[in-house]
């Protein structure tokens, strides 16, 4: 037996003596730091609408030479009257390089997920997988899944369940679930209470049986279930575990009218209401002005209200109000403190925070980071 104590015994003796005299305990080499990493003030995401891939319906019109290489939702009115809305990467976004650039811009400024708009084909009929895979409005989500930096963000689906793209009947919802299952199992997919989040536009009681079929299929597939959020409405009894909105504006086709952005903020705030049984995901409508899509040089949409006086400062204050609501009303919100911004890139409808020719330095993204990012 050696007369010298083992180094480990020496360390234990040192620890015991420190405890007895109230001194500090020497740190063990290689021990993990005890300080926790500062967290963002909320989990903030943004809707992503891919109207900026594919080709305009006027691409072959000799009277519309601007449309030769235009994406699906670009209009002559946007080019002529609203050129400041062009993203800093150009009107087209259908390349992996541009998607990776968007992910970095978003993640660098405290945006943590994209909610991609997803479209059913054919309206009210059975799953048309070929049409879905060929829909250019799904291009960006597929690029996101291929991006080398995709682990910097989460993603989820917004089912654009409206006229032209409606899902009807329990069997169609079940087929839809089977199609979405690879996305829902992706490690980057956003979950609430451990369940994949699916947001449904056009929410209503008529989908109750379809949701029940999806929930059964989800559990059979080994998932704990689905967190289904209805846009604007939808009861717990009808299968909506959560509520949110896509956007909130008061006069979609009510005739042209210029309105203060402060009024739009107030309309959004009035909708922030949830309960422990059905938490609400607050919507922050970053802007609304769809004039580029109105009239014959747009998409022939009827005129509506618009809010042209928005500023990054107003947007930052709007975000602070949403964070304050989460702080004051935890029983009405998700435990993950999820917020949703309309939108990342709704350039036609005027709801966007992505950098553009009119905002090349990303003032709206800087506003987002200033409010949401953890304090240094």
Helix content: 25-40%
Overall outline: globular
Low-confidence region ranges: 1-34
Kindly provide the radius of gyration, computed on alpha-carbon positions and rounded to a whole number of angstroms: 25 Å
What structural category arises from helix and sheet content?
alpha/beta
Number of strands: 13
Question: Mind describing the biggest β-sheet?
Answer: 9 strands, mixed
Strand fraction: 5-15%
- Counting DSSP H or I runs of 4 or more residues, the number of helices is 10
* Oligomeric state of the chains in view: single chain
Distance between the termini: 54 Å
What is the mean pLDDT?
91
Q: What is the element string, with H for helices and E for strands?
A: HEHHEHHEHEEHEEEHEEHEEEH
SSE arrangement:
Layout: H1 7-21, E1 43-48, H2 76-81, H3 96-108, E2 113-118, H4 129-134, H5 139-146, E3 154-159, H6 170-184, E4 191-192, E5 195-200, H7 208-220, E6 227-231, E7 242-244, E8 257-258, H8 261-269, E9 283-285, E10 305-306, H9 312-328, E11 338-342, E12 345-346, E13 351-352, H10 363-372
Parallel strand pairs: 1-2, 1-11, 2-3, 3-5, 5-6, 6-7, 8-10, 9-11
Antiparallel strand pairs: 4-5, 12-13
